[in-house]
Amino acid sequence: MPHPNPTTARAVITALCRAGQVAKAREVFDGIKSQRSPDCLNAMIAGYVLNGHDSEGLQLFRKFQTSGFDPDQFTLSRMLSISANLNASDEGKQIHTFIVKKNLAVDIAVNNSLINLYFKCKSVGDAEKVFNCMPERDVYTWTVMVSGYATSGSLEKAMDLFNKMPCRNTVSWNSMISAYQSEGYDEMALDLFYKMRERGEVPNKSTFLVVLKACASQQLLDTGKGVHCCLVKLGWIKIVDARCTLMDMYIKCGELLDVQRVFNEISEHNIVSWSILVAGYAQNGKIVEAERIFNGMPERNVISWNVMIAGYVQNGMQDRAFGLFIDMIKGDMRPNCFTLTSLLSGCSSLKYTRSGKRFHGFVMKVGLQSNTSIGNSLITMYGEQGNVGDARLIFDTMPQYDVISWTAIVAAYTSNNDVGEARHIFDQMPQKNLISWNTMMFGYLQNSKNIETNIVTGVTNLDALSFFYEMEQSELKPDQFSYNCALSAGAAIGALEQARAIHCRTVKRGFISDLGVGNALITVYGKCGALNEAEMIFHSMTNPDMVSWNALLTGYSQNGQGSEVLDFYEKMQKSGVWPNRVTFVSLLTACSYLGEVVKGQKFFYAMEKEYGISPTKEHYACMVDLLGRAGHLNDAESIIINMPIEPDAAVWGALLGACKIYGDTVIGRRAADQIFHLEPDNSSAYIALAETLAAARLWEDVAKLRAVMKEKRLLKEPGCSWMEIRNQKHMFLSDDSCHQQKDSIYATLYSLYGSMIEESYALDSDLLISV
DNA sequence: ATAGGGTTAG
Questions:
Q1: Does nucleic acid strand B have an atom less than 7 angstroms from the CB of A272?
Q2: Stated in angstroms, how far is A147 CA from B2 C1'?
Q3: In which ranges do the PPR repeats occur (predicted)?
C-alpha cells in the first residue's frame, strides 16, 4: 500500500474500523509516516473503542505518551473516558497528573471526562473539586454531575443539582429518571417522567426503556402498553433492544402471550431475545416450555445458562438446576456469581445442607467468596438451614455489606428464634428499606406464633403490633405485606379496635384490594367474633381464593357457628374453589358442634378419598372430639389407636375432654396417662383429669393428683390473657389479682358481654378472664 | 453522559 497522507489515512482507518476490521486499520496506522498526527491517532483510538477494544486503545495512547507526544484535548478526554469505562482509575489519575505537570490547556470536555472518571472510581470529593474549579460549564457538565451523584448513591444530591441546573436536556432527565428507577424508586421515576412530558421535554428511546423498566417492576401493564404504543408510533420498536425491554415488561406482568408476540415480531433474533424468552416461560411456571426453548437456542452464553438454572430453582426443581450446573462446567462455560447465588438459594432447606456446602466449596475455589451477593445468599442459606453460626460467620467475614446483607442476617436470627439479636442488629443497620422492616416485623410474628418459642423468647404478638406502629412513624410507609403482618398479629390477640383502625388505613393507602390484606382482615374479624365485618370483606372481594374461604370458615367454626360453616362450604364448592386441609378442620369442628357425627365421618372420608388430603393430627383430634362429644368414647379411642401417624397430646386431650363430659374415669385415665407421657408438665391435662375424677367423686384420687401437681409445681401456671377494652390493651395473668382497673374493666365487660363472662368464669375459675 | 437479558433479603 502506498503511503497515504494523514487525511486519507484517517479516512481509511475510520472506514476499516467501522467495518470491524480493526487489525487492518492498525496496519494502515502503523504504515503511515505521520503517525503522530493527532487526527490519525484519534481515529485509531476511536476505532478501538467502537469495536470494544478499549484497553488496546489505552495501550496505544500510553506508547505515544512515553515518546513525548502531546495529545490534543480530544485525545485526552477520550482517554479519560476509556480509563473510566475500564475502571482503570490509576490510569485516569495518571493522565490527570500528566495534564497538570505539562500544564496542558484543558477545555470543558476534558474537565467533564475528569468528573466522570472520579465518579466512576467513587472519588466523589475529587469530582466535586474539578466541578468547583471549572471556569465554564455546559449541559454535559451538569448532567455528568447529576448522574455521578445518582449512581454513587446520593440521590438527594443528584436531585438537588438537577433542580439547580441552568438548563436541562433529554439526557439530564434520563439520568435522573434512571437513577430513581435503578435505586428502586419506580414511582418517583414515573413521576419525573410525567413532569418531563409536562415541561415539553422530548423523551428519547432511552427514556421509554427506563419507563418500561419501572412498569415492569411495578407491574403497571397499562402504562407499559402505552409505552409500547409510543415506541411503535415513533418507529423505535424496530430496534431489538426495545423489543427485549418490552418482552421483559410483559414477563414481569405475567403476560406470556404478549412476550411471545413481541418475540415473534423480531426479525433477527439474538442471544438476548432468546434468553429473555426462556426467562419469560421459566418465571411464569412454564418450565417445560422454557427447557424446550433453551435446548433449541442457536447459541448460549452465561446469562442463558443462568436464566435456566434460576428457572429450575424458582420452580423447586433443584436436581435439574444442579444437573445443569454440571453440564455447564463440562461444556466449559464458567459459572459466575449470578449462577452461584441462584444455586445457593436453592439450598435453603435442611434437605440440601450437603449440596449447599459443596456450592460453598466451589465459591471458595473460584474465589467468589468476597462478592456481596454471594455472601448474602450464603447467609440466607445457612439461616434457613437452621445454622445461624455459619450464617453469622459469613456475615462477620464479608468485606462489604449492602441492605440485603443486613436484612439477611436479621432474617437468619428471627427464623432461628433469636429475636433479641435480630432486633439488636436491626437497630444497628446503617440503611433500612421496606423489606428490612417487614423482615423484622415478620420475625416478631413468627416467634410469637407458638407457645414454645413464646416462652423461650418472650416475644408476643403485641411486639409485632407495636413494631408496626413504630414503622408507621418511620420515614418508610408500610406496604401490603406490613399490613398483612400487623393484622395477623392483631388476630392472634383479638385486637378488634386496632384491627378496625388498621383496616381504615389499608383503605386509605389503597391496599384494600390486595388479596393478602383482605384475607388477613377476614381472619382478624373472624377471630374477634366480628363475623359481619368478616363477611363484608369477603363479599367485597372480586376473586376470593382458598385462603379467603378458609378464613371465613375458620371464623365461623371458631365461634361455634356450625351451620354457617356448612352453608358457606356449599357455596365454596359451587364457586369452584378447591378445599384443603384447613377447610376440613373447620368442617369437622362444625360437625362436632352440631353433633353431626355421620356428616363429619363423611367429610373425613371424602377428604382423603375425593380430595387426596391425608389427615393430620389436627383432623384426628377433630374426629376424636366429634365422636367423643357425641358420647362414642370407645370409637374415639379406637380412632386414636388405629391412627397411621403418632398421636400428640392434643389428640389425647380431645379424648380426655370428652371423658370429662361423660365422667368416664377409665378411658379418661388412659388418655391422661398418654398425655403425661408425651408432655409431663401439661397442667391442663392434670386439671381435666382432676375434674373428671371429681365428677365421679373419687376424692382420694383427686387429692393424689393434686399432690403430684404440687410436687411438679403445676398448680400455678400463669395463664395469660389479652383483653382489649375501648381501644386499650390489658393483660391479665391468672394469679394477677391486682390489675389496677380490674373492677372497672369487669364492669365494662359485664355490660358488653354479660352472660358470656359468667359462663367462662364457671368453666374455668383458675383463669380470671377468657373471652 | 443514560443504554437490552441473569442473583441475593420480607
A1: yes
A2: 8
A3: 37-71, 138-168, 169-203, 270-300, 301-335, 402-436, 545-579
Give percent helix, percent strand, percent coil of chain A, each to the nearest 5: 70, 0, 25
User: Can you give the pLDDT at residue A737?
Assistant: 38
Model pLDDT for residues A378-426, shown as the tens digit of each residue: 999 999 999 999 999 999 999 999 999 999 999 999 999 999 999 999 9
Distance from residue A246's CA to nucleotide B7's C1', rounded to whole Å: 21
pLDDT single digits (tens) A8-18: 788 888 888 78
Distance A297 CA to B1 C1' (A): 35
Long-range Cβ contact pairs of A677-682 (< 8 A, separation 24 or more): A678/A648, A678/A649, A678/A652, A679/A649, A680/A712, A681/A712, A681/A714, A682/A649
User: How far apart, in whole angstroms, are the C-alpha atoms of residue A623 and residue A617?
Assistant: 10
Spell out a b/e string for A33-54, using b for 16 or more CB atoms within 10 Å of the CB, else e: eebebbbbbbbbbbbbbebebb
Q: Cβ neighbours of residue A490 under 8 Å, at least 6 residues apart?
A: A461, A465, A498, A499, A502, A524
| Spatial distance between the Cα atoms of A717 and A593, rounded to a whole number of angstroms | 29
Nucleotides of B under 7 A from a protein CB: 1-10
Q: What is the dihedral of CA A17, A23, A24, A28, to 10 degrees?
A: 90
CA of residue A138 to C1' of nucleotide B3, angstroms: 22
**Domain-embedded: residue A762:** yes
Total Cβ atoms within 10 A of residue A187: 13
Burial of A341 (C-beta count, 10 Å sphere; 0-12/13-18/19+):
buried
**Phi and psi angles of residue A722, each rounded to the nearest 5 degrees, phi first:** -105, 140
Q: Is the CB of A345 under 7 A from strand B?
A: yes
**A418 beta carbon to strand B: under 7 Å:** no
pLDDT digits (tens, 9 = 90+) for A667-702: 999 999 999 999 888 888 888 888 888 888 888 888
Contacts of A290 (CB under 8 A, 6+ apart): A278, A279, A280, A281, A282, A308, A311
Phi-psi region of A158 (alpha: psi -120 to 50; beta: other; left: phi over 0): alpha
What tens digit of pLDDT does each residue of A85-121 get? 777 777 888 888 888 888 777 788 888 889 988 888 8
The three cell numbers locating residue A204? 428519547
A219: Cβ under 7 Å from strand B?
Answer: no
Of A285, A313, A279, the C-alpha closest to A297 is A279
Averaged confidence pLDDT in chain A? 86
In this structure, the dihedral spanned by the alpha carbons of residues A295, A296, A298 and A301, taken in order and rounded to 10 degrees, is -30
Domain interval for residue A733:
721-771
- Lowest-confidence range among A185-189, A208-212, A544-548, A745-749? A745-749
Q: Please list the residues that pair with A758 across neighbouring strands.
A: none
Q: Could you tell me if residue A189 is inside a domain? A: no
Spatial CA neighbour of A479 closest among A511, A521, A504: A511
Query: Which nucleotide does the CA of A239 lie closest to, via C1'?
Result: B4
pLDDT digits (tens, 9 = 90+) for A49-64: 777 777 788 888 888 7
pLDDT at A524: 94
* pLDDT higher than threshold 60 for residue A366: yes
Indicate if the alpha-carbon torsion angle A528, A531, A536, A539 is positive or negative: positive
Radius of gyration, CA atoms only, chain A: 35
For residues A39 and A581, the model is more confident at: A581
pTM summary value: 0.77
Please state, as a whole number, how many other Cβ atoms lie within 10 Å of the Cβ of residue A754: 10
Give the type of residue at A571: K
In b/e form, how buried is each residue of A369-385, taking b as 16+ CB within 10 angstroms? Answer: bebebbbbbbbbbbbbb
Report phi then psi at A676, rounded to 5: -60, -35
Residue A745's CB is within 10 A of a number of other CB atoms, namely 18
A149 touches A161 (CB < 8 A):
yes
Indicate if the pLDDT at residue A742 is higher than 70: no
Q: Establish if A191 belongs to a structural domain.
A: no
3-state SS class at A722 = strand
* Residue at A758 is within a domain: yes
